[in-house]
Amino acid sequence: MNKILLMLLLASWNVYANSERPGQFVTLNHVLPSASFDIRYATQNNFVGERVDGYIQPLCIISKIAAEALVAVNQDLAAKNMRLKIFDCYRPAKAVDHFMRWVKNKDDQKTKTDYYPNLNKESLLGGYIAERSGHSRGYTVDLSIEYKNEQGSYSELDMGSAYDLFDSISNTASPLITQTQMENRLLLKNLMSEHGFADYSMEWWHFTHRSDPRDSYWNFDVK
């Protein structure tokens, strides 16, 4: 068998063989109950417009190392009357496959206005939607910040664009946002960096812990 083909087959097997939840993962909802959780892919409120494959429950599952770092980030925010808002953590490989089917279906444009108003659907491939996602390794998280008002309730900081808005305005250093919105993004980016996370410049909400071994891609359900 061609060596390159064999390597591709083994890599593909590595994605789909890992269907059991490994011991290095925890459920952040239990570890960090003071954070806010809005796990969109377990609902219809997302760019696909339906519950995504593999999201059985609206939970954030993530590696223990990344979870400990997020606890530390949230502690820093608590001193400012703020807290983390979590959108997505570990993402099963089957969910990524669901994204790929969606992006290749040109007839399905029902979420265009809300999620990619200025882009053609096919242009989402690569920068925004890939055949493999770092989320499937369990060290990547999508998140924002909420602040507590005088009444004691929380509201999301204005980041200049909504979560999962596929557009240049969602680039962390976008010139299209206000000074206050930029300061809010930098608050998130700097805190995450202080606790071991690297940002993704195209999406202000996307961070990966630097301990990510970048090897296995997992496929167990979120439940």
UniProtKB/TrEMBL annotation:
Transmembrane parts of this sequence = none
Which chemical reaction does it catalyze?
D-alanyl-D-alanine + H2O = 2 D-alanine
Keyword set, alphabetical order:
Cell wall biogenesis/degradation, Dipeptidase, Hydrolase, Metal-binding, Metalloprotease, Protease, Signal, Zinc
Q: Which InterPro entries match?
A: A_A_dipeptidase (IPR000755), Zn_M74/Hedgehog-like (IPR009045)
Q: Which cofactor is essential here? A: Zn(2+)
Q: Site annotation (Transition state stabilizer): which residues?
A: 91
Q: What is its EC number?
A: 3.4.13.22
| The keyword Protease appears for this protein | yes
Q: Where is the active site?
A: 203 (proton donor/acceptor)
Query: Superkingdom of this entry's organism?
Result: Bacteria
Q: What class of enzyme is it?
A: hydrolase
Instruction: Identify the Pfam families for this entry.
Output: Peptidase_M15
Record: residues binding Zn(2+): 135, 142, 206
Q: Where is the signal peptide?
A: 1-17
Q: How is the cofactor bound?
A: Binds 1 zinc ion per subunit.
Q: Which family does it belong to?
A: Belongs to the peptidase M15D family.
Q: What does this protein do?
A: Catalyzes hydrolysis of the D-alanyl-D-alanine dipeptide.
Its name, as the record gives it, is D-alanyl-D-alanine dipeptidase
Q: Give the source species.
A: Paraglaciecola algarum
